[in-house]
């Protein structure tokens, strides 16, 4: 296949493996050598750089080709105007479930009494913000943290986060909006993704909540937003997304 992409362009890889159920999406420079790509995928998937096989799959998960020449560049496997590949990582030296079996991991246990004394728990958060039964003097209120009655949140504009929506790969972002919206009730978090993996530009149905580039914006529930000191995703970053 022809080398049709400029060296400063990128390729979006949807990455899956046999040895765990997690999937992720990452962008890589199109002129990256396959040997260097394997080194980066080793840190993301846990498969060995020396023994991994890279397969390109179609939308039906059927084999299209193999990325088996370490001396070739990623862009040489692309057809005209193509900038995305579904890459499946195989490594027979890794057992299925090696990175998911937590049965041998020591578990932190806390008694109910100790839990009630903590100031950083979900219970303490609900008590502080009078959510659910803590906001009803008769004790008969609901217990939905997404209710319109929620006026405070520990998530603030400008914070870095990881978006963890069930069934989707983790994505890093910056919080741009916290509050109620016109499109659905409850509390929503507006985020600007590090990569163009969103659904909008900070507006929905013509109403703007924040500004960002097209396909970089999105709205999620607080439960899907993990706040932390997450570095911004870059092409040379080896952190998993």
TrEMBL record:
<dbReference type="GO" id="GO:0035371">
    <property type="term" value="C:microtubule plus-end"/>
</dbReference>
<dbReference type="InterPro" id="IPR029071">
    <property type="entry name" value="Ubiquitin-like_domsf"/>
</dbReference>
<comment type="similarity">
    <text>Belongs to the TBCB family.</text>
</comment>
<dbReference type="GO" id="GO:0051010">
    <property type="term" value="F:microtubule plus-end binding"/>
</dbReference>
<dbReference type="Pfam" id="PF14560">
    <property type="entry name" value="Ubiquitin_2"/>
</dbReference>
<keyword id="KW-0963">Cytoplasm</keyword>
<dbReference type="InterPro" id="IPR045172">
    <property type="entry name" value="TBCB_Ubl"/>
</dbReference>
<protein>
    <recommendedName>
        <fullName>CAP-Gly domain-containing protein</fullName>
    </recommendedName>
</protein>
<dbReference type="InterPro" id="IPR000626">
    <property type="entry name" value="Ubiquitin-like_dom"/>
</dbReference>
<dbReference type="Pfam" id="PF01302">
    <property type="entry name" value="CAP_GLY"/>
</dbReference>
<dbReference type="GO" id="GO:0007023">
    <property type="term" value="P:post-chaperonin tubulin folding pathway"/>
</dbReference>
<dbReference type="GO" id="GO:0007021">
    <property type="term" value="P:tubulin complex assembly"/>
</dbReference>
<dbReference type="GO" id="GO:0005829">
    <property type="term" value="C:cytosol"/>
</dbReference>
<dbReference type="InterPro" id="IPR036859">
    <property type="entry name" value="CAP-Gly_dom_sf"/>
</dbReference>
<dbReference type="GO" id="GO:0005938">
    <property type="term" value="C:cell cortex"/>
</dbReference>
<feature type="domain" description="CAP-Gly">
    <location>
        <begin position="179"/>
        <end position="221"/>
    </location>
</feature>
<dbReference type="GO" id="GO:0005634">
    <property type="term" value="C:nucleus"/>
</dbReference>
<dbReference type="InterPro" id="IPR000938">
    <property type="entry name" value="CAP-Gly_domain"/>
</dbReference>
<dbReference type="GO" id="GO:0043014">
    <property type="term" value="F:alpha-tubulin binding"/>
</dbReference>
<dbReference type="GO" id="GO:0031122">
    <property type="term" value="P:cytoplasmic microtubule organization"/>
</dbReference>
<keyword id="KW-0143">Chaperone</keyword>
